[in-house]
Amino acid sequence: MTVDAVRGGVPEHGRVPKYFVVKNQLLNLLAELGEGALLPAERQLAVAYGVARSTLRQAISELTMEGRLRAYRGRGTFVAAPKLIQPLGLHSYTEALHAMGHQPSRRVVTVDCQPAGSSLAADLGVDATDEVVHLERVLLADDEPLGLESTYLPVRRFADLMTDFDGTGSLYQHMTDRYGIRYAEATERIETVLANPREAMLLGTNPAQPMLLMQRVSADQDGVPIERVRSLYRGDRIGFATRLIG
Question: Where is the HTH gntR-type domain positioned along the sequence (predicted)?
Fold first, then answer.
């Protein structure tokens, strides 16, 4: 067996599940159909590929979870647009989306104050009893929900944030314009998770859809913590890239 075959998903024992064969056949079909095209009916595809409809559905389900297909109740299943690939770095969401030719926006879900607690206090350099601003927003690209972001900032440093910032714009830009802050460094962790029912509802997605969870603590040019951010992104609609230099 060739290396290419192994890399193509064929295990060493050579036995390939039927759904995987169909999945690859469907990928070729999607390339032929092009973005936005309606996928042929299940019955037609099952006959064309000589498989049971349950096998076909498994292949379609995986492609939908991966963001290659998009299903709309009552309308059918369509070839999805390519994922947005956002560069990892100290950039604002607004800047990144504009650079990719998309229109960013945000929908505010929650704005409140709460005690920091021990975990937030350690990350933000405040006391556990100090208050933090909690800003929760749905991140959109061309009016489509892509992510759910919760940002925590120390009240004693940004006391007027809740009155000066409406939450729909770029917090990154507001910090620069209002406070003269430059985002200089950050520690970030990325992992895969499943959304809880509330998160799935806010993002308009299936709770079983894999998500990318990014947790970041940012600091300014003086090394003072600015914020802790928890961002949950739809794995079917967005990916991330970075450049590594040795």
Answer: 16-82
Tokens representing 196 are: 């809880």
Dihedral angle computed from the Cα positions of residues 8, 11, 14 and 18, in that order, rounded to the nearest 10 degrees: -70
Any idea what the CATH number is for the domain that residue 211 is in?
3.40.1410.10
193 torsion bin: left (phi>0), alpha (psi -120 to 50), beta (else): beta
Look at 56-60, 112-116, 203-207, 230-234 and tell me which has the smallest mean pLDDT. 203-207
Q: Which helix (H) or strand (E) is 152 found in, with range?
A: strand 144-154
Residues 100 and 62 in one domain: no
| Whole-number pLDDT of residue 10 | 57
CA-wise closest residue to 68 among 10, 21, 20, 29? 29
Contact 109, 202 (CB under 8 A): yes
Max CA-CA distance within the chain? 66
CB < 8 Å & 24+ apart, contacts of 113-120: 113/155, 113/162, 116/152, 116/154, 120/152, 120/228
Task: Indicate the pairing of strand 69-72 with strand 76-79.
Answer: antiparallel
Residue range(s) defining the domain that contains residue 223: 84-241
Nearest to 151 by CA among 232, 234, 97, 223: 232
State pLDDT tens for residues 164-186.
999 999 999 999 999 999 999 99
Per the CB < 8 A criterion, the answer to whether 160 and 153 are in contact is no
What's the pTM value of the predicted model, to 2 decimals? 0.82
